[in-house]
Amino acid sequence: MANGHLQNCHKWTQGVISKIGSSSVVEPKFMLYTVALVSAVALLLIQASKFFKKPVSSRAATPDLEKPAGRPTKAPQRKPGVWDPVEFKRPFPRPFPNWNVHTTKPNPYRPFRHGQYHITMGLRNMPWDEWIELDNHYLKFHADKAKRIAERGPKCCHTDPSAFDGAIELLEEFCSYLPDRYPSLYTRTPVGMDNLLTGESFNIKQRPLVEDPMQMAARMVQDDLAIMFEKEDGQYYLLAGAILLAGFWRLEDKLGMPLSEIHTSADVPGYKEKLEKGMMNFFRRVQPNGPVQRNNYFIQVDDSLPWSTSIGDEDGPHGSVGWFSAEQNRHISHHYFRSERQTLRRLPKSGGVVFTIRTYFHPITEIAEEPYVPGRLASAVRSWGEDVSKYKGKEMYGDVLLEYLDGKHREQVEAGLQIEAEETVVKYPF
Questions:
Q1: What would the pLDDT profile of 150-167 be if each residue is shown by its tens digit?
Q2: Is-above-0.70 flag for pTM?
Q3: Given a cut of 70, is residue 9 above it in pLDDT?
Q4: pLDDT band at residue 75, thresholds of 50, 70 and 90?
Q5: Does residue 231 carry a pLDDT above 70?
Q6: What CA–CA distance (Å, rounded) separates 72 from 261?
Q7: pLDDT: which is higher, 35 or 271
Q8: Confidence band of 116 (pLDDT split at 50, 70, 90)
Q9: What angle do CA 352, 357, 359 make, to 5 degrees?
Q10: How many CA atoms lie within 13 A of 256 on its CB side?
Q11: How far apart are CA 78 and CA 83, in angstroms?
């Protein structure tokens, strides 16, 4: 049909040209108008032919993790370490449909893919409604955090005096966002908000606060929290955090470090070669209206959400914690899938960049029952390079994990799983 329309337009254009050529007398003005018209039609034909030659696909594209998020984040020129407050009001979040603290399940993030493993930031644009995710694991996370605060307090939660205003701004954001998004759990008050389930009242106006502001913020959500601030050298420093359920790292080891050192001290694979420049550029230009999100995943060989006991004592001396401490090839019942959903956004008043780090924690034996998951996860683990494998501790669990995943994949295929349909059924990062 489209080709028919193009052919008709082409015939009409040829006809006009023929008539012009056969006319004995042609007014100059008419000639100019006609040439312009024919040129316009010809240009239209060229553009239309390009459009109709494009392949048509019924599949939604999977995000390319090699490319940055699409939203432009052009930043105004400013001196490093200087942030002038901007007039920005976060969009009003819609109430989560039918949310229930006992029945709303966690989002099934499965951020691994077939094929080659790429070391990238993997940023995607974040809808404002989805900034903070709460679900029916809320009470467990809340209890784990309360226990950690009681036992470890300042080791896990700290706000540098220079970051106090940013931490207060985060509290203000939570007391605005959470009652709107989760009205059955939180209600706004003149001084902050109340938790309708636990009976907690959060007063963010009084001074001094009853506790560290990041510690107070940690009690409100299931996420771990961190705020980075730029200094005069252009580097972003971790100056405020509530890291209670991180599993593999301790706030006390990273507090006060610049972004680059946080990653190099943890031997993050490919950071210097592939990540550092892009990450620094992102931090400099991210604006309050440009929130992003990313996902990652790890394998853990114990069932402790707050701290992975298999890698050593949380209070052990420097150098005593690592995968070298783990027991090799434990039974698959000890293997857990640990995934993080991280969001990043700029606070408009203080200029701090807030990380929220929500951990999802499930037995491997549970997620391997999901269609396509065992085959895809096995492919992803096999694609890790030597540096990624070392960072993720593959040597300590790889043999047992892959044997189990391969077996579950065979079971699914024998039961009729349509391998060729996977791309139409599963979309990253689920």
A1: 999 999 999 999 999 999
A2: yes
A3: no
A4: low
A5: yes
A6: 27
A7: 271
A8: confident
A9: 175
A10: 4
A11: 8
Cα torsion angle, 91, 92, 97, 101, sign:
positive
110: amino acid identity, one letter: R
3-class SS letters over the chain? CHHHHHHHHHHHHHHHHHHHHHCCCCCHHHHHHHHHHHHHHHHHHHHHHHHHHCCCCCCCCCCCCCCCCCCCCCCCCCCCCCCCCCCCCCCCCCCCCCCCCCCCCCCCCCCCCCCCCCCCCCCEECCHHHCCCCCCCHHHHHHHHHHHHHHHHHHCEEECHHHHHHHHHHHHHHHHHHHHHCCCCEEEECCEEEECCCCCEEECCCCCCCCCHHHHHHCCCCCEEEEEEECCCCCEEEEEEECCCCECCCHHHHCCCEHHHHHHCCCCCCHHHHHHHHHHHHHHHCCCCCCEEEEEEEEECCCCCCECHHHCCCCCCCCCCCHHHCCCCCCHHHCEEEEEEEEEEECCCCCCEEEEEEEEEEEHHHHCCCCCHHHHHHHHHHHCCHHHHHHHCHHHCHHHHHHHHHHHHHHHHHCCCCHHHHHHHCCCCC
Token code pair at residue 324 = 């070298």
pLDDT band at 317 (very low <50, low <70, confident <90, very high): confident
Q: Report the first-to-last Cα separation within the chain, whole angstroms.
A: 38
Alpha carbons 308 and 107: distance in angstroms, whole number: 22
The encoded tokens of residue 47 equal 């553009």
Written as six digits, the tokens of 315 are 């209070």
